[in-house]
Amino acid sequence: MIVKAIAAVALALAASGAAHALRPAPAACLLLEQGWVRAPMAGRAMTAGYGQLHNRCAHTVSLVGLHSAQARHVELHRTEITDGISRMRPVPGLQLAAGQHVSLEPGGLHLMLHGLQPGVVPGSQLELEIDDGNGHWVYRLPVRAR
Ligand SMILES: [Cu+2]
């Protein structure tokens, strides 16, 4: 569930005077459903996040940016098995076709969070901001042991 849309709602509110009807805020194209973050191992400042990305718009949408105030940077990674060795590689500029679902799951595509703040522990929440080119959408993802 999207908990707030930072820029979009603020702009919509600023643009609507008291005498004008409130314009509907732009809607998110990309939704992250069932999102969660794996609690980092003790002493580690990185971890992964998962969920289902869904483009509910009728056109192709790019994942423009990922940010969290609780991590130095967030990127999209893909786990690949090469010669029996599991490696993770950054995936720049993911695009989803109209209506497409993409699963972020262990062993596949995932969110990679680097430089985590100390409070990211089981039972806490991590705020993740997704920029889909249509706005910045903020999610609060539960942090779980698994
Ligand atoms: Cu990774």
TrEMBL record:
Residues 1-21 form the signal peptide. InterPro entries: LpqE-like, Lxx211020-like, PCuAC_sf. Keywords: Signal. This is Copper chaperone PCu(A)C.
